[in-house]
UniProtKB/TrEMBL annotation, chain A:
Biological processes annotated in GO: regulation of translational fidelity
Name by which UniProt lists this protein: Aspartyl/glutamyl-tRNA(Asn/Gln) amidotransferase subunit C
Superkingdom of the source species: Bacteria
Provenance organism: Candidatus Kaiserbacteria bacterium RIFCSPLOWO2_01_FULL_55_19
InterPro entries, sorted: Asp/Glu-ADT_sf_sub_c, GatC
SUPFAM superfamilies: Glu-tRNAGln amidotransferase C subunit (SSF141000)
Transmembrane parts of this sequence: none
Automatic annotation (TrEMBL), chain B:
EC number(s) per entry: 6.3.5.7
Organism from which the protein derives: Candidatus Kaiserbacteria bacterium RIFCSPLOWO2_01_FULL_55_19
Function as written in the Swiss-Prot or TrEMBL entry: Allows the formation of correctly charged Gln-tRNA(Gln) through the transamidation of misacylated Glu-tRNA(Gln) in organisms which lack glutaminyl-tRNA synthetase. The reaction takes place in the presence of glutamine and ATP through an activated gamma-phospho-Glu-tRNA(Gln).
Pfam families linked to this entry: Amidase (PF01425)
Name listed for the protein in its UniProt record: Glutamyl-tRNA(Gln) amidotransferase subunit A
Name of the coding gene: gatA
Region (Disordered): 130-155
InterPro entries referenced in this protein's UniProt entry, alphabetically: Amidase (IPR000120), Amidase_CS (IPR020556), Amidase_dom (IPR023631), AS_sf (IPR036928), GatA (IPR004412)
GO CC field: glutamyl-tRNA(Gln) amidotransferase complex
Length: 97, 473
């Protein structure tokens, strides 16, 4: 059973907020989804398959410059919410006090 | 003669070359239909103004005898595929102000082929949903019955093509998001082999599941579009070279595998009847129908709803309102993140981010994520085994026709509708939905689809069986 506290904790970990008014529905919906995917716990997979890794292959490429320096700078900088020149402005996170 | 916007790609290309039609006339017909019908259908989030340069260039290429059949063809593009200089919002408040800084590889290829873009189409936010009701910009309506959903998440692309607001469209498919709306709107929809089409420039949902593919009025059109967009790409390391998997023979007489054990419950009676009737016609046409067993399929949906949210929570972690996207200002940097994401993401998106965070958290990762991943391997092995004795595997694309708005308000009931389509995303195999007739609901004839899965990189087998369906249907 999922609790309101657990959902609130998960939200904090995921950097989102579940509003107080949504918390009960979120918790009960979460419960029914978890009950459904919980069938996996009982699923008995054939021997030797439990730890099977998916088919993987390495993809290599030559080192090199993918594009000329600055080719996209103007377009990317245009999306910033705040900037100084071509630098992105963010809140100070280390205090000097 | 049908109206210009009702033409297929093949028909339009033929008329353009026969000088019975100009690129301008074809564009005008599609743009006019889009502007007239979009207020009701909400298929497009934005209809683009005519690109005079592209229209003139396409006409010149056709006049010079260019072979590209997509030249001058107006297409609709799902709003999670980047077109440089255009907004690409993925139908989310989070990206409603985001302008694409480059072209997706599929867009580069379509531009090279001379195709035109009518607009960007509505979808469930970040492609999470099966009805287009989770768009931040209002739901899209099904052209066959506007009280019903067009399916999703590529519901805008499906409604645009089915309503003749474009000649064909691109969508993306993570768990059925091309094939399910294609089935519910009477179109052909293809999810290519994982890696067959580059994902560069596709806003990521589940990176091990996502593929871009066509929604079209005919199998031949879907084939044309697929051929234009496929190919390995240095910008997507998961894209694959042409012959990575062993080549499969395209037989004239196909062995069609049917997992009857999956169809005993949960499928509407008349949908099952339409499926059985079509199989009989295919059998009459010489194809062989064979029973196949795919026991782990029963757990595929549970595995999918672990793997997909896990990838969602990871992929969407990059959206924090700092470098681009919806930006809120709080007291601290942490508040900036939380406020931007809480306001930027809709309810379903937040639900799946939470679910993904849960299944990946310490203490649960073994019980859920690793188990789901193992089930995925077993499922793929079961399909590989089945394909030793059959060419394709068939079932109905959806258990039911299009449902009404709000009918599946409980998230789990919405998820259960994906039960047939998700296996192809988990196994990475190509799959196609083709119209198989209609069923009646409240006096309206609603389309339903037949679904075929083929071995990896055997798309040609899907086009061949699709052509057979179109012939016998």
């Amino acid at each position: 059973m999922a609790t309101r506290e657990e959902v609130t904790k998960l939200a904090a970990l995921a950097r989102v907020r579940v509003k107080e008014t949504e918390l009960d529905t979120f918790t009960s919906e979460f419960d029914s989804i978890l009950a459904y995917i919980g069938q996996l716990e009982k699923l008995d997979l054939p021997q030797g398959r439990r730890g099977e890794k998916p088919a993987l292959r390495n993809v290599m490429r030559e080192d090199g410059e993918p594009h000329a320096a600055g080719a996209y700078t103007k377009k990317l900088v245009a999306q910033f919410r705040a900037r100084e020149g071509d630098a992105l402005s963010v809140k100070q996170i280390i205090s000097h006090e | 003669m049908s109206k210009l916007n009702e033409l297929t790609i093949e028909e339009a290309a033929k008329q353009l070359r026969a000088r019975e039609l100009t690129v301008r006339e074809l564009w005008d017909a599609c743009e006019a239909a889009a502007r007239a019908k979009n207020p009701e259908l909400n298929a497009y989030l934005e209809i683009f103004d005519a690109d005079e340069v592209a229209i003139t260039a396409a006409q010149e290429r056709i006049d010079a005898g260019d072979a590209s059949l997509l030249c001058g063809i107006p297409l609709a593009i799902k709003d999670n595929i980047l077109i440089e200089g255009k907004l690409a919002s993925a139908a989310s408040v989070m990206l409603k102000n985001y302008t694409a800084t480059y072209d997706a590889t599929v867009i580069t290829k379509l531009k090279e082929a001379g195709a035109l873009f009518v607009g960007r189409t509505n979808m469930d936010e970040f492609a999470m949903g099966s009805s287009t009701e989770h768009s931040a910009f209002g739901p899209t309506k099904n052209p066959h019955d506007t009280s019903r959903v067009p399916g999703g998440s590529s519901g805008g692309s499906a409604a645009a093509v089915a309503g003749n607001l474009a000649i064909a469209a691109l969508g993306s498919d993570t768990g059925g998001s091309i094939r399910q709306p294609a089935a519910l709107t009477g179109l052909v929809g293809l999810k290519p082999t994982y890696g067959a089409v580059s994902r560069s420039g596709l806003i990521a949902l589940g990176s091990s599941l996502d593929q871009i593919g066509p929604l079209a009025k005919s199998v031949a059109d879907a084939h044309l579009l697929y051929t234009a967009i496929k190919g390995s790409d240095a910008r997507d390391a998961t894209s694959i070279p042409d012959s990575l998997y062993p080549a499969k023979e395209v037989r004239k007489v196909m062995r069609i595998g049917v997992p009857r054990h999956l169809l005993t419950e949960g499928v509407d009676k008349d949908v099952n009847a339409a499926f059985t009737a079509l199989l009989e016609k295919l059998s009459d046409a010489g194809h062989t129908i064979v029973d196949v067993e795919l026991p782990t399929s029963a757990h595929a949906l549970a595995a999918y709803y672990v793997i997909m949210p896990a990838e969602v929570s990871t992929n969407l972690a990059r959206l924090d309102g700092i470098r681009y996207g919806h930006a809120m200002q709080g007291a601290t940097l942490l508040d900036d993140y939380i406020d931007s994401r809480t306001e930027g993401f809709g309810k379903e998106t937040r639900r799946r981010v939470l679910l993904g965070t849960f299944v990946l958290s310490s203490g649960y990762i073994d019980a859920y994520y690793k188990k789901a991943d193992a089930a995925r391997s077993v499922l793929r092995a079961e399909y590989d085994t089945a394909f030793e004795s059959v060419d394709v595997i068939a079932f109905p694309t959806t258990p039911s026709p299009a449902f009404t708005f709000g009918e599946k308000s409980d998230p789990l009931s919405m998820y259960l509708g994906d039960i047939f389509t998700i296996t192809a995303n988990l196994t990475g195999m190509p799959a196609i939905s083709i119209p198989m007739g209609t069923v009646e609901r409240e006096g309206k004839q609603l389309p339903v689809g037949i679904h075929f899965t083929a071995p990896h990189q055997a798309e040609e087998i899907l086009f061949a069986i699709g052509a057979s369906v179109e012939k016998v249907r």
